[in-house]
Amino acid sequence: MTVTDPIGPSVLLLGNYRPTLILARELKASGLHVIAGLEGCDRGAELSRHVDKIWDHPELATSRDAFLEALNALLSSRPDIGCVFPVAENFVRLFAEVQPALPSHVTLANVAAETVNACLDKRASMELAVACGVPIAPFAEATTLEALHREADRLGYPLVIRPADSTLRLDGEKALRIASRTALDELIPVWPEGQSALILQRKAQGIRHNLYFAALDGVMCRALHAVITRTDRIDGAGLAVDGITIELDADLMRHTQAMLAELDYSGIGCAQFLVDEDSGAVSFLEINPRIAGNHAVPQHCGLDLGRFLVALSRGERDGLADGDMRIGRAGVRYSWLAGDIDGLKSSLKRREISLLQAWSWLGKLIDTARGAELDMMLSRDDRLPGIITLLDVIPGIGHITRRRNALGWLTRKRAIEAPKAPLLPIAPLAQR
Question: Residue 154: which domain range?
């Protein structure tokens, strides 16, 4: 599949982290010029040979209005930018919540706002799973400390508790694992500041299974099944550092398809489940309505999800479904070496693991690095981003390389100079 370009030859990627590098390579191969925003957690886009320009914009986390004003100015002054592609979740969420009216020459490569909001609303997505007959561990929502205690006792322990808003953290974590009422009282003695609601769920056993997909009008047309065999946390939570793609599981496909049909889903995403390897019990986790952090995996295995979403945003639906379902290649072992090293370092620093466990982790890390066919950031045809971001997590070196942008290390790329004031308004559609 190729992406034609009747509007503008440039695409703007927002969110500088792992999948941005893969998307840049994918879209550059389609003949597009790639501009990448500098803000992001993993960084690296500023070093990629597949990125033509860098946009150093006001931080979204600091001021949504300042970011939108700067975006307004950039798009109004750059008719060559024909597509905006939100990569990181905070940008995906922004465009779903605000729904800015972009200039007429710009399309938005994002899943429909109502679908994004339905998926990112944890309580709503869990209730959707129940309505579709998809297995899920018992859950509840609490908005007060009293309700938290009541629902925790009703559900039973062990529990997983997470913010209802997935962009927030709870005691610095995406989720807390609670073994008992005593542990709950110790970890959450008062209602957490800044949290409007918390989701409680009985802890399900098993390892994480990811189903990467593309869908049109609620029908899945591309799919890849991956199993996460190890993460950057000793308890199995956190981000994948070791995994393998496998043949599609019929039950997980059926569960995912049921939810996509109910959502009338068009676009790309990743459905996540916990599967108990001994009993086969399944529990739905979530659907991420965006490019996944491990986008390198479905891209390496032939799904072309980035180009799919760009083409869909431009109304170029012909050829997207390709007749029969496109299934990604099974048997690909993948790794994320930088994340693995950082996980080991952080776990030692937090004293979550013993020295014996650290040596065991190091042995698994080496085995993964030697045996993986694919790494999330290391690439032979674009070496610099992977090497520098690997140095970022090395003690004694990382504090230097992480300052590269402050020191002006934008390699051969000249940062875009955007106008100081907007030329066309980008206001929420509801205000127009």
Answer: 138-202
